[in-house]
Amino acid sequence: MLSRTADHLFWLARYVERADFLARIVEATQRLAALPMSYSGTGTEWESALESSGAADGFHATRAAAEEASVVEYLTFAPDNPSSIRNCIEFARANARAVRTALTVEIWEAINSAWIELKRYENSNIARGRYDREELSRFLELVKKTSLDYDGSTDRTMLRNDAYWFSRLGLYIERADNTARILDVKYHVLLPMDEAVGGSLDYFQWTAILRAVSALTAYHWVYRENIKPWLIADLLILKMEMPRSLIACYDNIVRFLDAIAKAYGRPGASQQQAHEVMTKLESATTKEIFRIGLHEFITDFVEDNDRLGRTITEQYLLY
Amino acid sequence: MQQSRCFDEMTVADGAIRAVYGKIARWLAATPAETLASRRSQAELLFRRIGITFAVYGEKDAGERLIPFDIIPRVMLRSEWSRIEAGLVQRVKALNLFLADIYGGQDIIRSGKIPADLILRNPQFRPQMAGRRIPHDIYVHIAGIDIVRTGEDDFYVLEDNVRTPSGVSYMLENREVMMRLVPDLFAEHRVAPVENYPDALLASLRSVAPIAAAEEPTIALLTPGRFNSAYYEHSFLADKLGVELVEGRDLLVNDDRVYMRTTQGAKQVDVLYRRIDDDFLDPETFRPDSILGVPGLMRAYLAGNVTLANAVGAGVADDKAIYTYMPEIIEFYLGEKAILKNVPTWRCREPASLRYALDNLAELVVKEVNGSGGYGMLVGPHATKAEREVFAAKLAHDPDNFIAQPTLALSTAPTFFDAGIAPRHVDLRPFVLTGANGVRVVPGGLTRVALIENSLVVNSSQGGGTKDTWIVDDAIFDEAAPWQSQLQNQAG
């Protein structure tokens, strides 16, 4: 297939996944910030929402204090934030439109209807800087539904060929990045202490993390235990059954890269790098991760993941 | 009323319904306006969902506009169509022979039938092509010939579009949408199918691959990109053909061969169905500022390593000044009389004609010889005095650049509006395919309709709409007699 087509498919998937993640971050943070100060801890929830979504620098360069209305505006509708949800949907559709022929009607409709809906929000309160929680929640629902529609239609309607594999690679590289980022920003609340008696104050921070990756219910099903910080790390890094864990993302990345290598008759640098990351994850234990430092482990991972994205681009997507 | 002077495809002068529209008339009479309106919004939704939009240059929201679609089909009898079809085949054969000649022996110039400078100094004439042979001597693989009707038996060719004619995607999608909206009408009419167009196009393109190409030639569709007004069509066709949709930046020329950049490295391309004008194809040969094209493409083309459809230089035959010679061209190459008539045309380059045009501007349509898409033309009867004066100055200043034609009374067809059904002017653009395997026309084409009352400009860039075009067997209507007379009784 054309390198440009593969590139557009790859980024289409990334932007849809990113929009979904941003929607969850905003929701989880809203919930956290609505708690009494004594429960939520620091009062810097919105600052860390910015950091988790990689938007802190851009925000501070153009805006004053990080409080709810301004951060939500920045993460959802700000035209000047290249990674705002609005821009993610715009970019997703621009990528989709550029490769209309590589998409099934169902995928196109999932993206195009989201874009048409987005246009309806153009004159809404939040888009014009007036904070409106009800409207916001409808909008975030739309975003989450779009990623489900995109994902479902990709799964149900695409041929299992390179077009599908590059789409999936985009999704899992982005998802791995998102999960890693939220772990990185929140690592300090996940550091193991002596088991807290009663509810730790960090309890709500922990559940916010789980909510951001829609894993709160999953946690209970996997561990059948109270929320414990090291188990959160375990779930989001090493649990294969958790679809947003780093290891589950890499399980998919390795699989799809191998499928491409097989179809094209030759593996290359990206296959090699992906297998290396996977080996690291497979041989890691929570204990070991906390021994060398959660922060260091995650920082390394984010770098590895970024590098793999660049390698895939160089190997397949340049035009 | 101006309407009464022109031929209506459904209703004749005394109010009777033409047999071919009998079933449509009954359907319209039996269907409440609200139902038609809801069908129309259903159609709009379908088009919007599948992403059929048309960008109009120079408009702010140019990005995404929907071409208005009318749900009342335009119906023609097979017997009417057969004559048009024969005329189209004849015309396109002659166009190809003409182009092969002007880039070859130039017999027609030596015969004195057409002034040499009209061809050799034509901006669309490409000297690079002189003396070159291209596969099967086919220059025009895809032609869109615009036809208008003025009476029961009067059909005229208005324009020959042989550069990069567009609209075929609307022909195909209109049909799909209509089949979903009015399945009963289809069952009753047994409409000739058009869905095999992409397949016929693919066969034509494959047949003209360079001789050296592999048995399975690689075909790609070259688009200027997603900001082009016809981008939707390009992607639609690439999809239906099962070929890559490439932009200039996806291609490279190496060793006089064209390659596309794929995830598996460079892959050679044998046939390019290009939807980019000559001027932008190759910055090394044509406009150096073109970023849409592919540097070196002409080298590969002239070396015979890639086929371009349509051929470089085909635009000469698209020229409205050349158009005026079509009857002579057909006679010269085929020894036949033209089956389809030309609109009588004054060539403003001839002093007597210019004088006539200037004196009668209020009755004439004046067009630029190289114009397309309805831009740069004057419809005399509908222009203000001031507009005519401005245009007269332009015309007097550069007469070679213009032709003038009488304002034809284009036929009208019933069209649905919220206020009711009203006649609107229509034309027809059938698509003619030429390959090594011969000339083919799918039955029908794209009917364009001028939605504004009395307007004669049907171009989608000028606010025109489209209709599905139905070619139906004459025999279908033999059984229609009883209720048809009933309908007339009701009317009477």
Write a brief structural summary.
Chain A has 319 residues and is mostly helical. In chain A, 74% of the residues lie in helices and 0% in strands.
Structural class of chain A: mainly alpha
Round the Cα radius of gyration of chain B to an integer and report it: 23 Å
Number of helices of chain B: 16
State mean pLDDT of chain B (0 to 100 scale). 89
First and last CA, distance of chain A: 12 Å
Beta-strand content bin of chain A: under 5%
Q: Please, how many helices of chain A?
A: 16
Q: Give a quick account of the main beta sheet of chain B: strands, pairing sense, barrel closure.
A: 5 strands, mixed
* Count of the domains of chain A: 2
* Number of E-type strands of chain B: 21
* End-to-end C-alpha gap of chain B: 22 Å
Main beta-sheet strand count, sense and barrel state of chain A:
none
- Spatial sequence of strands, sheet with the most strands of chain B: 1-21-20-17-16
Task: Write down the oligomeric state.
Answer: heterodimer
Helix content of chain B: 25-40%
Q: What general outline of chain A do the C-alpha atoms trace?
A: globular
Most residues in contact: chain pair: A-B, 26 and 21 residues
Helix and strand composition category of chain B? alpha+beta
On the 0 to 100 scale, the average pLDDT of chain A is 91
Question: Topology, pairings included?
Answer:
The complex is a heterodimer of chains A (319) and B (492).
Chain A: H1 3-33, H2 37-40, H3 45-52, H4 56-62, H5 68-76, H6 85-98, H7 105-121, H8 133-157, H9 162-190, H10 203-212, H11 216-223, H12 229-238, H13 246-264, H14 269-283, H15 286-292, H16 294-317
Chain B: H1 22-30, H2 33-50, E1 69-77, H3 78-102, H4 107-110, H5 116-120, E2 142-151, E3 154-161, H6 168-181, H7 183-189, H8 197-207, E4 219-222, H9 231-241, E5 244-246, E6 251-254, E7 257-262, E8 265-268, E9 271-274, H10 278-281, H11 297-302, E10 307-309, H12 320-323, H13 326-334, E11 341-342, E12 346-347, H14 351-359, E13 364-368, E14 378-379, H15 385-397, E15 402-406, E16 412-417, E17 420-429, E18 431-435, E19 438-441, E20 446-449, E21 465-472, H16 481-491
Parallel strand pairs in B: 1-21, 3-11, 4-5, 4-9, 9-10
Antiparallel strand pairs in B: 2-3, 2-18, 6-7, 7-8, 12-15, 13-14, 13-15, 16-17, 17-20, 18-19, 20-21
Helix pairs in contact in B: 2-6, 3-13
